[in-house]
Structure formats: C-alpha cells, structure tokens
UniProtKB/TrEMBL annotation:
Protein topology in the membrane: Multi-pass membrane protein
Domain Pecanex C-terminal: 561-783
Top-rank taxon, per record: Eukaryota
Ranges annotated as spanning the membrane: 31-50, 56-77, 126-151
Protein name according to UniProt: Pecanex-like protein
Subcellular location: Membrane
InterPro entries: Pecanex, Pecanex_C
Organism of derivation: Pristionchus mayeri
Keyword Transmembrane: yes
Gene Ontology annotations of biological process type: endoplasmic reticulum organization
Entry keyword set: Membrane, Transmembrane, Transmembrane helix
Cellular component terms (Gene Ontology): endoplasmic reticulum; membrane
Homology family: Belongs to the pecanex family.
Length: 879
C-alpha cells in the first residue's frame, strides 16, 4: 500500500490547491464587499447625517475607532506576550497549551481570540470606513485648488492602511483628533486661510501624521538597536579590531545619532563596520525585499547521476537532507500564519519588513514578513542549520532560557514580587534587540529522532536478530506480492526450483554465511540447508500462506512445496547480497555490517554469485521483495527493544508488519518519494543515514513522527536585521573578507548576531533552506469559519434572499387579506408531493379515496364598502 498518493498532488505545484481556492473566494468576497461599501457610502451621503450632525459624527467615530485601536493593537497584544510590558512574568491571556509539555492536539480556539477577531472585523469594516467618510465629508470644501483631487487620494490611502496595517494608523488618528478638536479652541499651530478651521484640514493632518509615524517608528528601532549593540556592559568583542574600535566609537556618539536620523529619513540601513560598534550609514535599500534567486536547491536521486548515488561515500554535511523539514514547515505555516497573526498567537503586531525567529529543539528558522494585507501575509522562511556552531548554540540558549526564574536585584538576590520579573531580568530585557513574544506556538510538523545504529548492532546477537527478521520480511513480501503467480510460472525460476528439489539434502555453502549472523546456519553441513531453513521459518511460512495466499496445505501440497523452495532461494539471495555488500569493508564487524545494510537500504543490489542469476528473469523481485524487506527489518529490529515478545509470535508479527505498512513510510532520504511523503503528511517515516561525524563513520536511524510542534516566537528588531545583513554584504562582497571565523559573525546574545548573519542570502549567509515568497490567506485557517461563519459571497447572499422571499410569500400569500393562504399553500404543496409518490389521499375523518375541501375568503373593495365572499374548492385525488 503506497502512503504517497493523490493526496500529495496539490502540494507539488508552486501554488497549492487550497490556496488557489482561497484566493478565488477572496476575489468574490472583495467584489461583493466593495459593491456593498459603495452603496452604503452613497446612501449616507444621500441623507443629512454627515452634514447636519457634524462635527459630532466625526468626533464620535474617531473616538470609538481610537479606543478600539488601543484595545486591539496595544492592550490585547501586550496581554498575550510572554512577558507583558517586559515586567510581568507570565502572559495574562494564556492559551490552553501554555502549561503542557507537549500539545497532543492543535491549538485550541480561546474565547478572547473570538472576541478579538470580531473587534477587528468591527474596526476594519465599520469604524474605519465610517471615520474616513465622515472626515472627507467634513473637509468637502475646496480649500486648495487641488482639493478635489487630493481628498479622494487621501481617503483611499487611509482606507488601505486601515485594512492592511491598522496598528500603524490608530496613533496618527488619535493625534489628529487632538489637533483638530482640542487645539482648535486654544491656538492654531498653522496659519490658516480665511474662513478655514483645523476641522477642514482633518484628512490632511491625519494623512501627514500617517506618513510621519512609520519614520518615527523606524528612528526608534534604530536608536534601540544602536544602544543595545553599543552598551559597554554587554559588548562582545568578536576580534581584536572590535576591542580597538570600541573606545573610538564613544566620542562619535553624536555623529552616530545624526546618521541614525538621516538614515531613518532615507530608509537606509545602518552598517556596523566589520561588525564593530563603529556604525555608519549604508546606501538606500527598499524596505520590502527578498531573495530573487533561490540557491538552496535540493539534490536527490531525481537530479543526480546514478554513479554518484552508488559510489557516494558518507556525507560531510546533512543540511541538504534536513532542508525538507523546513519546506514542510513552510507549507504548514502557509495555511495558518495569517489567521494566527490576526488572533494574536504571535504576540506581536506584524508589518512589512518584520523578522521573527521560530525556535524548537531541532528547527530554528527566520521568518521574514515581506507583505501584510487585509487577510493575507506574504513571507519567506530561512532555515538554519540543525547542528550549528558554538556561537549559534549560545544564542539558541539565550532565546530558550526561562527568564521568570531570575531573582537578582543589582548586586544582591532578594527575589521578585509575585507575578513580576526581577529587577535585573526586567532591565536586561530592555537592553536586547529581540523579544520572546510567544512561549508556545503550536504548528504542524515532525518530531525528529536520530539514534546511532552502531550501538544497536554492536552485539552479534542483535545482528543475528536483524538477519532473521530480514528473512521473515522476505517471506512476507513474497507471499503478498501480486506477481507471485507469474513468478511461479516463469521458466528460469521453475528450473531453479526443480534443481533444488532434485537434491533431497540441498545445502548452500557460501563463505558469506556464518553462525554469527545466520540463525539457521547448519554447522554440520557448513552452510544453510533447506531443512534448517524450514525448521526455523516453517511456522511463519505456514501463517503467511494461510493469511496471504489461496493455497491449501493439504490440497496443494506440491505447489506449497515449490513455493517454499522459492522462499528459501529468495532468503539466500537477500542474505548473500547483504554479505557481499558488507564483506571486508571495515575492521569493525558492526561497521562492515552497517555498510552493507545501508547499501541495500538505498537500493544498491549487486548480484555477483552465479547461483543467483535466476533473479534476472524478473528484476521486480529486488524492488518489490528485497528492498522493502531490508527496510521493514530495520524497523522491526527497533521494535524488538519494546515489544520483543510479539516478534516471536507469528500472529503478532504479522499484525505489526501490516500496521507499519499502513502508517509508516520507510525509504532512503535521497529518494524523491521521501520528500513527497513528508509533504503529504505521512504519520511516520524512517530512514538510515550515513554520516561522517567527529572523524569517523556514523550511521543514524532517522525516525519522524507527525505531531504538533511547540515553538518559541522571537520578534527581532527589523533594523538590527537590516544592519547586519548590509554589513555582511559590505564585508564579504566589497572588502573581500572570506575568513569563516571573522569577528562580525561571532555570537552576541543581545542582538543574536550569529543567527541573523547566518540567515542572510548566499553567499553572505549560509541558510540550508530559503523558501520562495509564500502567501498565506486568512480563509485557509482551519478555525476561521468557526469564528465568523462562511464567507460572504454574492451566491450566498442571493440564495439567502431567495429563501427569505419564498418564505415571505408563503406566509402572506398573493394578497395581504388572505388568512388561509399559508395553510392552503402548505397543503397543496403536500398534496403534490404525495401525488408524485402515488399515495392514497384521505379526509380528516380517515376515509380512503375521498377528496380534500378548502375554503378561501376573498375581500373586494367596492364603492358601497367591503364585500367578503367564500370560495370553496376541492382537490380530487388521481384515480
């Protein structure tokens, strides 16, 4: 049974099928909502609400919008952070999984998340459109000559910002409210034309502040980065040049401050010269940027030569194999990241250019937010090495430590107040360019377990057990193969079977067989005989024949005898291939055995004995019997340490193999099917990896289990990321410093310098995986419809209107005075349905074959008054 089927097909393209459906649904919904907003806007302007009730409508709408903005984008976000306001030890609004070691289910939908989503819907779809319309209506007079052109453009710009990044516009809204409605009674900061007030300039003031606010925010982030990076009590000198440059940077503090202001106006990143504390201004770069050419292409059996696959030695770097886990994480994030950010599960407001680090036990990746819109997020994921350098590990420890355990206060340790952070911890959190926003973020992924195979096969008894399980798996896969009847009728295979059956005491004598590996080795005969093979495996053969074939032991005795000979020959062929691949490969018996096992595991079968030439009659035997048997035997050998009693029982072993076939995918990691299985969310996977680690060969058994990963979300200062990436580009590309141990990439815990630099584009950085630009839509989140219901489209609205009109018509009839029309309509509808089914009509008294009489009152208005007439009608049933 193949675990990689049609389910994986939608994920093979550049745009998954669920994303395409979500994009089309968004287009339909946006068209309908735009039309609805247009109608509402014209309807409001047709009334006197926006003219007679001014300026109170504008004041109320702006005040409500500002208050909702503070609750949505400041209070709620800080209540969900891991350390609210960098002062509280635990978040106030905690998810269900906060106290769990491992989440056994996806993230639960909390009540405060539902409330927050509905408040966002209220803010975006009602308050902001109403506020913009009222502000534009207030300033409808032509103050300037270009006012008729500027006002619509300003309104469109404000609405777009309100839909995409509302957290960037509620502060300018509050300041413009203060300037327009408070300062107007005290003084006018600007010279105004005659007859013009600040209220007439409200949209212009709001727009101007909305343009200035991002620059102010950028300046704040850059100053925060400079102070955190240059603080003398936490400076880390990566080289002697850093120690030399540190004293000279202190007198230039004012120059650095001026450069920071200028770079904020130009949106140019700062540039730590050679990674030191001497900071300059780099050239202007766009805020929205991404890697154009993805240099992290995977290599597997589909794009490498066959000779390179067979002769390939141990890998010095397993980054290419680990990149597939980041690819799977990218697809998992694609379906949920837009919804999780809006629900506040990342504990931060997100805007274009932001960078986050997602950290778990193995996976550490940088998520670069490229674009944020109304219900969608475009991001790029950069996966870091699994086993990083010393500097990488020190920074991983910094973002993983529990800050709530600290109790220091200056030079003493008095502890902290209940529920609060200690003074030293709160002080230290304010002097870092990063912040842990979410302690446990649940995302769909794989847990990765790697065990050394050498320790599992060091003992002779364990290697003998593996060979025994290998033979049993050969028997199982042979009898379960649909090609078994064809093999039994093949001439070459039949000749081989008859040649063995002619010798009553047939023995295969080969120097590759020995007592240390083969449990059925006959020491008297010096080889593996047919009788010794049957003594050990006959119970297993009988059970498999009974469960997998239609042969009967008593009726088809000759066929079963020939089938047993075929199983005996296939077992010898498989063991001989294993022995030939591992013969004299290493001085250690365990390493030689593992070398041969790995060769067969990746499909490298080399038939060198003339006694096995019969297998060339159908090479499908190697792929459908020998290859899966090697892989299944390795998994059963692992199960031996937990369910050793079940492997001796034929029924238990048969059930265990069947269960692994249904839920476990075993393959070599360079097989393209391995990646397809991961992308198809197969529950469990297993592989054998050959690595060259610490100066010696190492074989690792890689076991993957699908689960809900617990990840930490760390928000980086985006100006810190831009500064380090621009500095590395200058140092490597322009200054030609290719020293792998250069000081600019050494660890700096306060800014995560090593992790940021290693995630940059190649050749500046060295990420093992860089995803293409990936867009996540809110509609693909599995919990979205449970909050807001199905999407609002033209088809759904039209069907609802038709249903309402039909019920309305059935209730009131064609004229409003008919009191029995509803009963008549329902009764006639029921009679028509019964007539179609051929049932018998009855009167109310229960007599069969009768008709049904109905009375209907008709009211006619005449000059003399109203006249009521009774109309009787009878429904005659069909004969």
């Amino acid at each position: 049974m193949s675990l990689v089927g049609a389910e994986d097909e939608p994920f093979l393209g550049s745009l998954p099928t669920p994303i395409k459906r979500a994009a089309l649904a968004r287009v339909k919904r946006d068209l309908f909502f735009s039309l609805l907003l247009l109608i509402v806007s014209f309807s409001l302007h047709c009334t006197t609400v926006l003219t007679a009730a001014q300026p109170y409508v504008t004041m109320i709408s702006m005040g409500c919008t500002f208050i909702i903005g503070i609750l949505n984008h400041y209070v709620y976000i800080h209540l969900r952070k891991h350390t609210p306001w960098k002062l509280i030890a635990r978040p106030f609004l905690r998810p269900r999984e906060y106290g769990m070691f491992e989440a056994d289910q996806p993230a639960a939908l909390m009540h405060f998340e539902k409330i927050h989503m509905w408040m966002l819907i209220l803010e975006k779809n009602i308050l902001y459109p109403l506020t913009v319309i009222s502000c534009v209506s207030v300033s409808s007079r032509s103050i300037f000559s270009l006012s008729p052109i500027l006002i619509p453009i300003i309104g469109f710009r404000l609405l777009r910002s309100a839909m995409a990044v509302p957290h960037q516009i509620y502060d300018p809204l509050g300041f413009s409210f203060i300037i327009s409605f408070v300062d107007v009674h005290t003084f006018s900061p600007l010279p105004l034309p005659k007859g013009c007030t600040l209220l007439d300039l409200l949209p212009y003031i709001w727009y101007l502040l909305a343009v200035i606010y991002p620059k102010w925010e950028e300046l704040s982030l850059k100053l925060h980065f400079v102070m955190a990076y240059m603080a003398p009590w936490q400076i880390t000198w990566g080289s002697a040049f850093h120690a030399f440059a540190q004293p000279f940077s202190v007198p230039h503090t004012m120059v650095i401050t001026v450069q920071t202001v200028v770079s904020s106006l130009l949106s140019a990143p700062l540039n730590p010269f050679l990674g030191s504390s001497f900071i300059t201004t780099s050239y202007v770069r766009p805020v929205k940027f991404w890697e154009k050419d993805y240099n992290t292409e995977r290599s597997d059996a589909s794009n490498t030569r066959l000779a390179a696959q067979l002769e390939k030695g141990p890998m010095l770097d397993d980054s290419n194999l680990n990149a597939v886990f980041y690819e799977h994480l990218t697809r998992s994030l694609q379906s949920v990241i837009a919804g999780d950010i809006l629900m506040g599960r990342w504990g931060a407001s997100v805007e274009p250019g932001d960078c986050f680090i997602l950290a778990s036990f193995y996976l550490n990746c940088l998520v670069h937010i490229v674009e944020v819109g109304n219900g969608y997020v475009t991001f790029q994921l950069r996966g870091l090495e699994f086993r990083g350098t010393y500097c990488h590990q020190r920074e991983v420890e910094a973002i993983s430590e529990d800050v709530s355990e600290g109790g220091g206060c200056c030079c003493c340790n008095p502890g902290s107040l209940p529920g609060l952070l200690s003074l030293n911890t709160a002080w230290g959190l304010r002097w870092t360019a990063w912040e842990v926003t979410t302690h446990k973020y649940i995302v769909d992924g794989y847990s990765i377990t790697d065990n050394s195979a050498i320790s599992l096969l060091q003992v002779h008894e364990l290697r003998r057990l593996l060979v025994t399980l290998y033979s049993k798996c050969i028997i199982y896969h042979t009898l379960s193969s649909p090609n078994l009847p064809k093999w039994m009728e093949n001439e070459q295979i039949t000749a081989m079977i008859e040649g063995i059956d002619k010798v009553p005491r047939y023995v295969d004598v080969d120097h590759l067989f020995c007592t240390s590996n083969d449990e059925d080795y006959d020491t008297d005969q010096g080889g593996i005989s047919r009788q010794s093979f049957l003594r050990l495996y006959s119970p297993w053969i009988d059970h498999c024949i009974k469960r997998l074939t239609k042969y009967n032991q008593s009726d088809d005795a000759s066929t079963v005898h020939r089938l047993t000979t075929l199983l005996y020959s296939l077992s010898l062929l498989g063991r001989r291939a294993l022995g030939q691949a591992s013969f004299n490969r290493h001085s250690s018996a365990a390493e030689s055995f593992l070398y041969g096992l790995h060769s067969l595991f990746k499909g490298d079968f080399r038939i060198s004995s003339s006694r096995d030439d019969w297998v060339f009659a159908d090479m499908e035997m190697l792929q459908s019997v020998i290859a899966p048997s090697v892989r299944m035997a390795l998994k059963l050998h692992q199960d031996h340490f937990t369910v050793s009693d079940d492997l001796d029982d034929a029924r238990s072993l048969f059930y265990l193999i069947r269960r692994h076939q249904e839920s476990l995918f075993i393959s070599h990691e360079h097989d393209p099917a391995w990646r397809s299985a991961i992308m198809a969310n197969v529950p469990s996977l297993l592989a054998l990896r050959h690595m060259y680690d610490d100066g010696q060969d190492d074989y690792k058994i890689i076991m993957l289990n699908k689960m809900n990963l617990n990840m930490r979300v760390i928000k980086l200062n985006r100006e810190c990321v831009r500064a380090f990436w621009s500095g590395q580009q200058q140092e490597l590309v322009f200054l030609r410093n290719r020293n792998p141990e250069r000081g600019s990439i050494q660890n700096a815990r306060q800014v995560l310098r090593n992790m940021i630099n290693s995630s940059a584009d190649q050749p500046v950085g060295y990420p093992i995986y860089v995803s293409p630009l990936t867009t996540s839509f809110l509609e693909t989140h599995p919990q979205y419809e449970s909050i807001v219901g199905p999407p609002l489209t033209v088809q759904r609205v039209s069907s609802s209107l038709r249903s309402f009109f039909s019920r309305f018509r059935a209730h009131f009839g064609m004229n409003g005075s008919n009191s029995l029309s509803a009963t008549s309509a329902v009764l006639s509808h029921r009679l028509k349905g019964e007539a179609a089914q051929g049932t018998v009509y009855t009167k109310e008294s229960g007599e069969e074959g009768g008709g049904v009489q109905m009375e209907q009152s008709v009211v006619q208005l005449t000059g003399e008054g109203a006249r009521v007439s009774i109309v009787k009608s009878a429904v005659i049933p069909p004969s």
